[in-house]
Specification:
This protein is an alpha/beta fold. The chain is 38% helix and 19% strand. The protein contains 15 helices and 14 strands. It has an 8-stranded mixed beta sheet, with helices on both faces. A hairpin with an 8-residue loop joins strand 4 and strand 5. The longest helix is centred in the last third of the chain and has 25 residues.
Length: 403
């Protein structure tokens, strides 16, 4: 890395998409953002916004056979703005990797051995790690001389004590097959817990926070003094809260019942619980805005789905209050958490005896800034803290390559 290199390219590679951001780490400024989607289809699409030049979003469509073609197209778009991958100002490329198991507890410079270990984790993250690996391989091919860093979704949760991370099943079987609670959305939980502490004017080690990351995927975490001590997602992102299309917590025997009584295959049950459950399974919609519109029109099915969603949230707030012992703040983040005021209001309603309350006027304010929505008298602060996973990945990547 040259002395002047201060830029980090963040790549989030999905099975058929690549999200990317180029940031200048001297001040965290975004220089470019973009998304490639429908990779491998006839009508792949790239949307690129050159923030550094103030230019308009550029969209192109055409076939991109694989991630290699997609990243080459991204590199061309960046080069057109004078931000090419060959720039001496590019310090590193940071990759989001969903599953790091127990081996990877912090950001890691990628070499062949690291990539091999990420591949070994594919059985516990079959939907995510293969796409992450493809993005890493492609980027290494484009810039083999540049440091490439893996930042793991699971890393923040590796501080959980064994009694929180282990399931109550035979230890030998669990260890042989890596069965335990890993947790996900870790970069978001790390970022939001620190930002919440700053919002309160305190150091992270002095604050206990319940973070509620509510998007189409949703998870909760109990963060004690800057360290995660419990989280709702487990071996996979299926466990925990009610989500857009995922069931969250469910009696494991339901899967056996569906196989025996309904004649469903393992793949059928997998699709049901991951893609046809949660809000979409309950009411046919997984967009909280549409669900609220239907509720306002008197739709009972939408109301029941909302109530189930909120009930699960309250259970986790209560459980993590018990785990932490002292709660200084509850922080809402991600798409639903940041934008759905009715969700925040309903989740906290009735928890006054636990020191939690929401001020209706503050809750109604829309802002991109971290803010408190609890009244001054509330013992526990309730906050809305917009997440920034890309900035978190960039910061961790830059800190590592500078070290």
């Amino acid at each position: 890395m040259t002395a002047t290199a201060s830029r980090v390219l963040v790549l989030n590679s999905g099975s058929s998409s690549v999200k990317y951001q180029l940031l200048d780490m001297t001040d965290g400024t975004r220089l470019a953002v973009g998304l490639v989607e429908r990779i491998g289809e006839e009508t792949s699409r790239l949307a690129h916004t050159p923030l550094a030049t103030g230019g308009d979003k550029r969209e192109t469509e055409g076939p991109m056979a694989d991630h290699g073609a997609a990243l080459k197209a991204v590199a061309a778009e960046l080069a057109a703005d004078g931000l090419g991958l060959d720039s001496p100002e590019l310090a590193a490329i940071g990759h989001r990797v969903v599953h790091g198991g127990l081996k990877f507890t912090e950001p890691t410079v990628i070499d062949d051995a690291v990539l091999e270990e990420i591949e070994r984790l594919v059985p516990v993250a079959p939907l995510h790690n293969p796409a992450n690996i493809t993005g890493i391989r492609t980027a290494r091919g484009l810039r083999p001389d540049l440091p490439q860093v893996a930042v793991f979704d699971t890393a923040f949760h590796t501080t959980m004590p064994e009694y929180a991370a282990r399931y109550a099943i035979d230890v030998e079987t669990a260890d042989a097959h890596r069965i335990r609670r890993y947790g996900f959305h870790g970069t978001s939980h790390a970022y939001v817990s620190r930002r919440t502490a700053a919002l309160l004017g305190k150091a992270p080690q002095d604050v206990n926070v319940i973070v509620l990351h509510l998007g189409n995927g949703a998870s909760a975490s109990a963060v004690q003094g800057g360290r995660c001590v419990d989280t709702s997602m487990g071996l996979t992102p299926l466990e925990g809260l009610v989500m857009g299309t995922r069931s969250g917590d469910i009696d494991p025997a339901v899967t056996f019942h569906l196989k025996r009584v309904a004649g469903m295959s393992e793949d059928d049950v997998d699709v049901l619980l991951n893609k046809k459950s949660g809000l979409i399974g309950l009411c046919g919609d997984n967009d909280m805005r549409e669900i609220r519109r239907r509720i306002d029109e008197g739709d009972k099915r939408a109301k029941l789905a909302f109530d189930i969603y909120i009930h699960r949230l309250k259970k986790y707030i209560g459980a993590y209050s018990a785990v932490l012992g002292r709660v200084d703040a509850v922080a809402f983040t991600a798409g639903v958490g940041e934008n759905a005021a009715p969700v925040r209001e309903a989740a906290i309603a009735g928890l006054e005896e636990m020191g939690m309350a929401v001020d209706a006027a503050l809750n109604a304010v829309r802002s991109d800034e971290p803010r408190l929505i609890s009244p001054e008298y509330a013992r526990v602060a309730v906050a809305v803290v917009p997440t920034d996973e890309e900035l978190e990945i960039a910061q961790q990547t830059y800190a590592l390559v500078n070290a």
